[in-house]
Design brief:
Blueprint: E1 10-18, H1 25-33, E2 39-41, H2 47-50, E3 57-59, H3 66-69, H4 84-100, E4 112-117, H5 123-134, H6 145-149, H7 153-162, E5 168-169, H8 177-190, E6 196-203, H9 208-216, E7 240-248, H10 249-254, E8 261-270, H11 280-293, E9 301-305, H12 314-326, E10 334-336, H13 339-342, H14 349-363, E11 365-366, E12 389-390, E13 396-403, E14 407-414
Parallel strand pairs: 4-5, 4-6, 9-10, 9-13
Antiparallel strand pairs: 1-7, 1-8, 2-3, 6-7, 8-14, 11-12, 13-14
Length: about 425
């Protein structure tokens, strides 16, 4: 069973979420269980440019004011001049750290890590700067442009505010960024490098250039994100952030923290074959590694929050990989894609979807795949269509991230130990 290895157990004591369907974990989970969709017409892109795009929808966060949400930040005032992806990460981390009850500034700063993943970091700021300089005729760029752009800035801001002096950096591996961040933080704790880690991912790159890049690869759907459905035509870009406070069980128990769940196993692979389409065998291997790392059997997993983005090949390939990894048990598994509601959060996906797994276990509720009116012929598992479902037995869960570049990660999560 999970946690029987020589390594210490790693538990989750705090969670934070910023998504198009909720700007807190409570609101996010409520929206998932009520099948709410946060995908709609794109705002914030000039009308002339929007008209040139064939896909004009996205998952955007409306009404977020960083000056209000981060008004309590006192050590790092520079966050107010940073980029939107940093603000989203900071808001998610702030929620997670407050829930965890960690003393701030942290009591033992060199024993705490902060690893926040992002696929493209502050890309939007490069686009804004280019427009200001070459189209609008400004003679200078914003003095904070460089830290606004680099993908490590979110980790740095969170580290400064909370007095973290342990490993602090970003991981950039496209849609697997947050999952890799969680996995690396998990390994740091198991191997004694740290006692606590703030991990997750953040993304805010709904820009004209990003949309053009995705359209060039025919990745975007014009009408919605419909994973596993026969009518699916592509994915939908979204912005958001997710953060988790993870720590060794001993450290959490010693300070009286409430344990929300457990990180039980982690597996990651590179397909080594194709930039644009994950290799089925590599995806299968990542899932098997995570299950083996957790000390579990495939039959112990009750639910998978799938990578499924709504793209033509990916959903079928993931279904094949699940069948290969789980054998006959695949027919008993519940599998869903919450991207149908919040969109493709890219580098933030793994963290937000891990949070969905932990909430699913806590409430014995399976989040649905909305928009699944007729499944594709190659997608023949139980995808929890349309509505959330109560499940009497909901033990271990898994979240998959199979990313651009054939970068794959799977995480096994469990309920609070003992």
């Amino acid at each position: 069973m999970a946690g029987t290895s020589k390594h210490p157990r790693v538990v989750v004591t705090g969670m934070g979420a910023m998504t198009p369907i909720g700007q807190s974990v409570a609101d996010f989970w409520d929206a998932l269980t009520k099948s709410r969709c946060g995908i709609g017409p794109i705002e914030g892109i000039e009308a002339g440019e929007l008209e040139r795009l064939s896909a004009r929808i996205a998952g955007q966060i409306h009404g977020f004011k960083h000056t209000e949400r981060l008004a309590g930040w006192t050590r790092d005032k520079s966050i107010m001049h940073s980029s939107r992806y940093c603000w989203l990460a900071a808001a998610a981390a702030d929620e997670a750290i407050k829930q965890s009850g960690l003393q701030v500034p942290v009591a033992d700063p060199h024993r705490v890590a902060c690893i926040i993943g992002s696929g493209v970091g502050g890309q939007i700021n490069s686009e804004i700067a280019g427009r200001d300089r070459y189209i609008r005729g400004k003679t200078a760029v914003h003095p904070m442009l460089l830290p606004r752009i680099v993908a490590s800035s979110a980790s740095a801001h969170i580290g400064i505010e909370h007095g973290i002096r342990g490993p602090t950096y970003a991981i950039s591996s496209a849609g697997a960024s947050a999952s890799h961040s969680i996995g690396i933080g998990y390994d740091y704790l198991r191997h004694g490098l740290c006692d606590v880690a703030i991990v997750g991912g953040s993304e805010s790159a709904i820009t004209y250039t990003a949309l053009l890049a995705c359209e060039a690869l025919d990745l975007l759907a014009p009408d919605g994100c419909f994973p596993f459905a026969r009518r699916r035509r592509g994915t939908v870009l979204a912005e958001g952030a997710g953060a988790l406070v993870i720590e060794t069980e001993e450290h959490a128990r010693a300070r009286g923290a409430t344990v929300l769940g457990e990180i039980c196993g982690f597996g990651m692979t590179g397909g080594g074959e194709n930039m644009l389409r994950p290799d089925t065998d590599a995806c299968t291997a990542a899932m098997r590694m995570a299950i083996e790392d957790a000390g579990l059997r495939p039959s112990d997993i009750d639910y998978i929050n799938a990578n499924a983005t709504g793209c033509r090949f990916g959903d079928v390939d993931e279904t094949k990989a699940i069948k290969a990894a789980f054998g006959k048990h695949a027919r008993k598994l519940a599998v869903s894609s919450t991207k149908s509601m919040h969109g493709n959060l890219f580098g933030a996906s793994g963290a937000v979807e891990a949070i969905a797994c932990i909430k699913a276990m806590a409430t014995k509720t399976l989040p649905p795949t909305i928009g699944l009116d007729e499944a594709d012929a190659g997608c023949d598992l139980d995808y929890v269509p349309q509505k959330a479902r109560k499940k009497r037995k909901l033990g271990y869960t898994m979240t998959n991230a199979f990313a651009l570049g054939d970068l794959n990660a799977s995480i096994v999560l469990g309920p609070p130990p003992g």
